[in-house]
Amino acid sequence: MIRVRHLALAVLVGGVVQADEFKPAPDDIPNYFAAVMPCKIERDGRTTIACKGGELERKTLRELSILRNTIYARYGWDGYRKPWLRDYFHAQPWFKANPRFTYKVLSDADRKNAHFIASKEQSLTSTELEGMRDEIFARHGKVWADKQEYRLKNGKTVKACKPPKGVVDEDKDMEADDFSSHDCRFAKQKWYAPNPKFSPAELTTGDKIELGLLSRAMGEFALDNEQREKTESTLERILKPEELRQLSLRDLRLLRNTIYARKGRPFKSQILRDHFEGMDWYKVNTGYSDKVLSANDTRNITLIKSVENEFGGPLTDEDWLTEPATDGA
User: Could you tell me which residues are beta bridge partners of residue 50?
Assistant: First the structure.
């Protein structure tokens, strides 16, 4: 049963939720689906989701987050702790904050669509997430200088995606692997324009938000909209309560369990199993116990739990997939 938290208590007048005045017409809201999206969730080892028309394909984590939260914002939800989400919806001409927001006003289609979108977010593997991260840099022209190196018969070496003329016999059959060479992979894209002078300073605000979301999804730590050097921070350091309070309850649950996952903990939650089994670094330790946690691990877990409790307590699997977690996950 979905929990209605203290920030979203219903105000009833004559038994009817007063919310229509905060509900603009569906056609006035970009990226809002009034009907159930043509999606299907399947399970073959891991949970996957496919939608006719590709509504959820090729979307960034930021776009998926906006898409899911648009469902709640239509009814006036305005409890976003994340500045970028709050700023986005406050800039929408159709948005009107509703202090009487309650989850009860959501339609059946709204709940199903929120479930589809959240399932898509959780279905992405580390390979897919890394590809999304790399594309951000590629669109700014980053050069990785990771092409295959070939030895020529004249004694020189060159880097290329395919064996060049004059290569020694042993290297004739070598060809750069698109998975190992970023430069070769993006060279095939018409939009890619190599920029040897690329600097992280060129990243946009949207890029930084996306990198923060990607970092946490892949098992690292970052806040949204941080500088590049902070989006690669690890969970080895002690986290700060003021950092954690900028995250959603969905973020916090994933972050807390990432600490366990890095030590091989098995999970009963289907959502957590699906997510971590999609990470190439996750290896189940059948003999796991909390004794393998470091002092920093234990400290961070305690901090995360305390912040979760500040905002209503940890989410259940059902909350994860259907609620905005009181702060716009």
Answer: 40
